[in-house]
Amino acid sequence: MTKPRGFEFWRNTLKGSRYVVAPMVDQSELAWRLLSRRHGAELCYTPMLHAQVFVRDANYRRENLYNEVNQEDRPLIAQFCANDPEVFVQAALLAQDYCDAIDLNLGCPQMIAKRGHYGVFLQDEWELLEKMIKLADEKLSVPITCKIRVFPEMEKTVRYAKMLEKAGCQLLTVHGRTKDQKGALTGIACWKHIKAVREAVNIPVFANGNIQHLSDVHRCMEETGVQGVMSAEGNLHNPALFEGRSPPVWEMAEEYLEVVEKHPPCSLSYVRAHLFKLWHHTLQIHQDLREELAKAKNVDGIAEVNRQLKQRCQEEMAKDESEWTQTGLPFPHWICQPYVRPPPKDPSSENGQTAQKTKAVCVKRAHEDSDGPPNDSLSKNKQKKQARNPYKNFCPELKPKYIRCEQCGNPKGNKCVFNLCRGCCKKKAFKEVADCPGHGLKFKTKALRQSNSETGSGLTNGKPNNQTDVSPAVPDVNITCPKEGFVLDLGDNGI
Q1: pLDDT digits over 179-221, tens only?
Q2: What burial letters (b/e) apply to 316-339, b meaning 16+ CB within 10 Å?
Q3: Could you give the residue numbers annotated as active site?
Q4: What interhelical angle do 268-278 and 30-38 show, nearest 10?
Q5: Whether the Cβ atoms of residue 302 and residue 271 lie closer than 8 Å to each other
Q6: Which of 151, 162, 362, 475 has the smallest set of CB atoms within 10 Å of its CB?
């Protein structure tokens, strides 16, 4: 049977989905997907799965996909991160019976993706990506899709998208931000890049970026011409976004906890993280309950914190409106609404310092400055680390550059004799019976030691090499016992 392709795949298999919940690490689990589908989402992605771990670890497969099979949770696309064509296809083959398509993550910009060499950090390796997608398209019984970020140059972004389409990609999700637009530098996604891609390819395109309300979804589809719109942050703060509603936070929280109870198991860390997102604005005011939520040991404990927050908010609602409208938010803080990241601070104007002065924070601080005021240009987490270690360096330009392992791309050991990471070095040293002092591996030394031990014992199969039994000579000894008045004679053979 021929698998569906392009627009046929989108119309028939994905049922013409327009409202899409993004793949989010540890956040788009089954319970959250079911909640989102109740409130307007038409297509969901699994959290990003690591292809290599998925292949080798049966528990990982069971916990992240196999035990989550649910007829309500369709259509569903499983997303993988990978940098090896064979490993990617092996993982996809194990997953294809549990989803409607396989997505290759080419958009993750986080540091863990840089260290593992996947996500957006593959966007310049077109030959590798073409090979991965072609092989997957040939071997899989379900379509292959991709999620990408844009290049600063629109023309290069279009060529990139067309290359993926030619390789076999059947649906493309375009996040309108570049590799460097993350964290404090997230900024605004460029819908013009998305529109250019949509006009250049002959496969369905989903847009991602700048989605906070249902009106943004409609405006994005109108301006770009895409087939669907994907939301991540907007969905986490308001799972009813695609429904066009902004309900009270406790309504969504209670419903989510109900789904969690109905569809176990769900990691407590996932549940807690979702409640932090939903109650984000309220927890800025009721900070004592933020700590209680962080300390909760089970779902019942989290439900109790949710109940207390609900009670406090309802008490506020009964008061004068002027007391709870001074938050600077478009809605009261207990209403589901997006969180807008503050723009990055301008280092040239902050506290009257010049850009040159502010840049000096990248240099290691002298010992005598260790008791000085905290460095405001660093995040709170980094300030805590610097308080513990005043000499810690946070400047990327001054950090050591790691050399990649020749086989897997992970950082190699600095003193490895094979120029490999520990995992690859261990395999090679074992295979070649060699030593690597840098990684503390001594296969050759142990083999020699064992060989010398067997040779030195003079044993062959547990028997003496020479069948003549030669006993050590024992000298003649006479022992006198004065008390008893006799002499004990030890002859040639001893006693």
Answers
A1: 999 888 888 999 999 999 999 999 999 999 999 999 999 999 9
A2: beeeeeeeeeeeeeeebbbbbbbe
A3: 108
A4: 40
A5: yes
A6: 475
